[in-house]
From TrEMBL:
Domain DOG1: 18-264
Protein name: DOG1 domain-containing protein
GO MF annotation: an example: sequence-specific DNA binding
Pfam families: DOG1
InterPro entries: Seed_Dev/Stress_Resp_Reg, TGA_domain
GO biological process: one example: DNA-templated transcription
TM spans (from-to): none
Length: 279
């Protein structure tokens, strides 16, 4: 049931940061799939019958949850290190599908999605356990959320919404700088120089713009992991377990679906190109 976090195999020291992070991401997906299996196995265990059994189960679940959360933290540490060398790829990742990229917010998932996911899974589990809950029984999952927990989740939700708004506004300001006077003037100079000859001038100016976006990415990623930590603090161990199961299922299945659709589109493009090449 344990899920040890092994960070030694996820180095970022290769000469090609883009290729290196892509390999790391594939490895991380495999880790997440293994974590999902461990979480699912733990969720299938019988509910404890005594206080001692409950305490022992909670201790085991906390160790598993800490390992899963540590893997998320490791992901964002590696991502931060990679972004120092190649921030552009983080905003246009080739390791994810075009379907996933369609819903990106500042280089990743929108933090409020975690809370919407929690509410969605809670609603599904309440519906599935409505008769047991009506009799006063515990469902042993997110259907057991009480009023105090919902209140704290609402407070967290409001905080995350405010933080998202601040980051979105800062990111918009950083993007608008591309149309600022320095780059507009430099673009005209490079045009008069004949285009390509002035690439070095643009390179120096764009580095500053990329650094602004890297800082926005760092803030967004911090908010993402802080949101997960905030939810874990509010939820009981078994509830957090079901949340992470839902998160892993959603991420892995959407990723698989997106990669399948990309493969279909690539195959169609090849079919179109083949007859043209024969002409």
């Amino acid at each position: 049931m344990s899920s040890a976090v092994n960070t030694s195999s996820h180095s970022t020291g290769s000469r090609n940061p883009h290729e290196n992070f892509e390999k790391f991401f594939d490895s991380w997906l495999a880790d997440q799939d293994r974590d999902l299996q461990s979480l699912t196995a733990a969720a299938a265990l019988p509910l404890p019958r005594t206080a001692d059994e409950e305490a022992a189960q909670n201790n085991r679940l906390r160790r598993l949850l800490n390992a899963v959360l540590a893997r998320y933290e490791h992901y964002y540490r590696v991502k931060e290190a990679s972004a120092l060398h190649d921030v552009r790829s983080m905003f246009n990742p080739s390791w994810t599908s075009t379907t996933e990229n369609l819903f990106l917010w500042v280089g990743g998932w929108r933090p409020t999605m975690a809370i919407h996911l929690l509410y969605s899974k809670c609603g599904i589990q309440v519906e599935a356990s409505i008769h047991e809950l009506a009799l006063g029984a515990h469902a042993g999952n997110l259907a057991d959320l009480d009023a105090a927990q919902l209140h704290h989740i609402d407070i967290l939700h409001r905080m995350v919404v405010r933080a998202e708004k601040e980051i979105s506004e800062e990111a918009a300001s950083a993007q608008e700088k591309v149309a600022g006077e320095p780059l507009v003037r430099l673009s005209h100079i490079v045009t008069e120089m004949g285009g390509g000859d002035g690439a070095e001038l643009l390179e120096a100016e764009m580095k500053g713009k990329e650094e602004d976006m890297r800082k926005m990415l760092e803030k967004a990623d911090c908010l993402r992991i802080d949101t997960l930590k905030g939810l874990v603090e509010i939820l009981q161990p078994m509830q957090a377990l079901h949340f992470f199961i839902a998160a892993a299922e959603l991420h892995l299945r959407v990723h698989d679906f997106g990669k399948m659709k990309d493969a279909e589109m690539a195959a169609k493009a090849q079919q179109v190109q083949a007859p043209a090449a024969a002409l």
